[in-house]
TrEMBL record:
Taxonomic source organism: Lacipirellula limnantheis
Predominant localisation class: membrane
Classification via InterPro entries: ABC3_permease_C (IPR003838), MacB_PCD (IPR025857), Macrolide_Exporter_MacB (IPR050250)
Lineage, highest ranks first: Bacteria, Pseudomonadati, Planctomycetota, Planctomycetia, Pirellulales
Alphabetical UniProt keywords: ATP-binding, Cell membrane, Hydrolase, Membrane, Nucleotide-binding, Transmembrane, Transmembrane helix
Enzyme Commission code(s) on record: 3.6.3.-
Protein name (record): Macrolide export ATP-binding/permease protein MacB
Length: 391
């Protein structure tokens, strides 16, 4: 086999061309990591929100809480079913919740978008154990007060601590800022369910009922019971299933991200191939000499493939370091998008974890293998006599 140091010296001898290719591949890997990180960040936000034993009850056929309705009588009936977990006082861990929209402008823009406002009861916080007030205080039940996630406070006007915003013409004051570990609840505003129901003229019904089952067996039995009860005419699914369906509705975002990564990768492959073709054309006599010294076609092929991979791995390292540097200096990258199922804003952070960085490295390896194969094949097909005659 041709020694690896031959490839390293060859790259060093063509510094300008090698560095240009490494930089180009690094930019492609960098952009692809951002595309992968966006898609993974959105999925992660929805996955974090799901508690294994929690169940969401909606109107049959509803795709989200925003278009669902559960009557108070049906909610009372479900809360009385055996198998629902209870708190220390013996009360069922079941919360009646109402979701409506506020129409709010993003910061630095006059364009308004739908933002989810969730009316909650006393049990709702128990069902979201990851939620913590980091500034201000809890809202007071029965009063037009609200708490807002830090992500939404940073993205929207009138949602800072002490600010006021309107829902259906009624004014609410922001009295607290919360964090929830990056889960889907960080895309919401929380207030008292009964106050919100009066303003939205939704008294007597809520959007959903969320409860925690005592065990996996109880969860399955309760879901089947609710689905088969024709009198209440409701559907039920695990919280994990609910958020998986919400993530599936955001498939367009993933499609766009991966399409961009594919187009950039194809362009980078041509760049790698062009660099390697140039290297082979200028080193025909070297190739002939290696063949004359007894190195076989397979050894030559492997040598040039390794050279292509070295270029791409160096580019992958550059791209990964650049992505991590941007994320570090910005203190994490947060953004938002519209949920196609609810037409509301979903706030999430880009994911730059090991899995995403590994995807970037794998992408670079694919570039090296595909982009370097044809030039390497051309090198091994050279006749020794013709190669030695090249100037």
């Amino acid at each position: 086999m041709v020694p690896l140091k031959y490839n390293v010296r060859s790259l060093r001898a063509r510094k300008v061309g090698s560095l240009m290719t490494i930089f180009g591949i690094g930019m492609v890997v960098w952009a692809s990591i951002f595309a992968f990180g966006l898609s993974s960040g959105l999925d992660r936000t929805l996955e974090i929100a799901a508690e294994p034993l929690d169940v969401i009850v909606l109107r049959k056929g509803s795709t989200s809480e925003a278009v669902s309705a559960v009557t108070e009588s049906a909610a009372r009936e479900i809360k009385s079913l055996p198998g629902i977990a209870t708190n220390s006082d013996g009360a069922p861990l079941a919360a009646s919740e109402l979701v409506v929209f506020a129409y709010l402008p993003r910061r630095g823009s006059e364009i308004k978008v739908n933002v989810s406002v969730r009316g909650v009861d006393a049990v709702s916080r128990t069902l979201r154990k990851e939620m913590t007030i980091v500034e201000g205080r809890e809202f007071t039940p029965g009063v037009r007060e609200a708490i807002v996630s830090r992500a939404m406070a940073n993205r929207f006007q009138n949602l800072g601590l002490g600010d006021k915003f309107k829902v259906d013409g009624a004014e609410f004051e922001v009295v607290g800022i919360f964090e929830a570990g990056g889960g889907a609840v960080e895309s919401e505003i929380w207030t008292d369910e009964r106050v919100l129901a009066q303003i939205a003229k939704r008294t007597g019904a809520m959007s959903s009922l969320q409860f925690r089952a005592a065990s996996v067996a109880d969860q399955e039995r309760l879901i089947n019971h609710i689905k088969n009860d024709e009198q209440i005419d409701l559907g039920a699914l695990t919280e994990k299933q609910y958020y998986a369906e919400q993530a599936a509705q955001s498939g367009l975002i993933k499609f766009v991200g991966y399409t961009i990564a594919l187009v950039l990768t194809i362009g980078a492959m041509f760049a790698v191939a062009n660099t390697m073709y140039g290297a082979i054309a200028s080193r025909a006599r070297e190739i002939g000499t290696l063949r004359a010294l007894g190195f076989g076609r397979l050894s030559i092929l492997v040598a040039f493939m390794l050279e292509s991979l070295l270029l791409c791995l160096a580019g992958a390292a550059l791209g990964c370091l650049a992505a991590l540097a941007v994320n570090f200096f910005l203190g994490g990258i947060q953004t938002g998008t519209m949920n196609p199922g609810t037409f509301t804003e979903v706030a999430f952070s880009f994911d730059f974890g090991p899995k995403i960085l590994l995807q970037g490295v794998i992408l670079a390896v694919v570039m090296g293998l595909i982009g370097g194969f044809l030039p390497a094949l051309r090198a091994v097909r050279m006749k020794v006599v013709d190669a030695l005659r090249e100037v």
